[in-house]
Amino acid sequence: MEQWLGRFVEKYAGDLYFPDVQITDIVEVMILTFLIYQVMVWIKNTKAWMLMKGIIVLAVFILLAAIFKMHTILYIAKNAATVMATAAIVVFQPELRRALEKLGEKKFLTSVVPFEANREKSRFSEETRESIIEAAYAMGKVKTGALIVVEQAIRLTEYESTGIKMDCLMSSQVLINIFEHNTPLHDGAIIVRGDRIVSATCYLPLTDNMGISKELGTRHRAAVGMSEVSDALIVVVSEETGAVSVAQGGQIFRNISEEELRQKLIEIQDKKTEYNRIAAWWKGRRKDERKTNA
Ligand SMILES: Nc1ncnc2c1ncn2[C@@H]1O[C@H](COP(=O)(O)OP(=O)(O)OP(=O)(O)O)[C@@H](O)[C@H]1O
């Protein structure tokens, strides 16, 4: 039996090539798996999915042309490839930019970049959080429409400049006043940076996501659109139903309760607290270093 097994292994496994696997190879495979997974998720969550489908159809078409030796089609496909790659970069520029921005958002980068320490100020307080909640539900009760963009790590300067600049400390009364019907500032969105309202009547990009309920109009589409191009959290109050919804990461969470909204806001506050912790840790480390060097 042993002999037979030995001959069997020799016969079938003798020609097999077993590479010498190092620890770096395993790490490399893990990194590649992670990157490919991230790219696939990105493709699925953006317009790139439509492009991917188009590429698959084109690839099948070209494959058929190759099988049936249709030389003219193959010639055109070969020459158009570079142009199409350039066109794809131009068409998907916002998505690509967003993907790169997302990379920059990762905590492992911010943790080693201490020069962003002044961003500490942009973290909002509990009072701001409660003011947003209080105002949102108060406006919902009387069916006053509102669109509140809470900025996070990505600066929304380009959207801020579409509105009227403000520098106003946040309070529920101010919010209610801004969105009051027939007042000069009620139209469009406000942008909240830290504990201040920095701009009102801002114009936000509309999403072209076909999956969003047809019941939702432009206010909600603007909220989703904004959440697709930034990491902001957007609170929407419907003028029609009074319902409070939140858009984040291209998704909309409709008709949420006061507690759910609080949780969402706490989540982004926590991110900030985490950043502060990292910054404090970094500062402490540098102080220690200076002490030991002295
Ligand atoms: N691109 C945009 N950026 C910012 N605000 C917008 C944008 N588009 C629409 N709005 C705001 O939404 C209002 C129109 O809301 P509309 O009724 O179309 O949306 P809706 O999603 O059905 O909301 P509602 O439930 O409040 O009616 C506008 O008056 C404006 O204040």
Automatic annotation (TrEMBL):
Its EC number is 2.7.7.85. Pfam families: CdaA_N, DAC. One of its GO terms (molecular function) is ATP binding. InterPro entries: C-di-AMP_synthase, CdaA, CdaA_N, DisA, DNA_integrity_DisA_N_sf, DNA_integrity_scan_DisA_N. One of its GO terms (biological process) is cAMP biosynthetic process. SUPFAM superfamilies: YojJ-like. Residues 93-258 form the DAC domain. The chain crosses the membrane at residues 26-43, 50-68. Keywords: ATP-binding, Cell membrane, Membrane, Nucleotide-binding, Nucleotidyltransferase, Transferase, Transmembrane, Transmembrane helix. Catalyzes the condensation of 2 ATP molecules into cyclic di-AMP (c-di-AMP), a second messenger used to regulate differing processes in different bacteria. PANTHER family: DIADENYLATE CYCLASE (PTHR34185:SF1). This is Diadenylate cyclase. It comes from Dorea phocaeensis. The lineage of its organism: Bacteria, Bacillati, Bacillota, Clostridia, Lachnospirales.
